[in-house]
Design a protein that fits this description.
The chain is mainly α and 68 residues long. It has two helices and no strands.
Length: 68
């Protein structure tokens, strides 16, 4: 019972992944996937505390009913 509930799904997942790798290898894509390029991220500076307090907050367009 424990085998079916815990181990069998993991074994089936490994089998499916292995079949996918085998299919890629047989279709001629035997080389491993190329590393993704470097990410070009830029830091966004935080707002000063005075500006953050002055920005108005948007209220939702629809007022929701509270549970009674």
């Amino acid at each position: 019972m424990v085998f079916v509930a815990v181990l069998l799904p993991n074994l089936m997942l490994v089998a499916v992944l292995a079949l996918g790798r085998y299919e890629e290898f047989m279709l001629g894509r035997g080389d491993p996937a190329a590393e993704p390029g470097e990410r070009h991220l830029t830091a966004v500076p935080d707002l000063p505390s005075g500006e953050a307090a002055r920005t108005p907050r948007k209220r939702p367009a629809v007022r929701r009913r509270h549970a009674a």
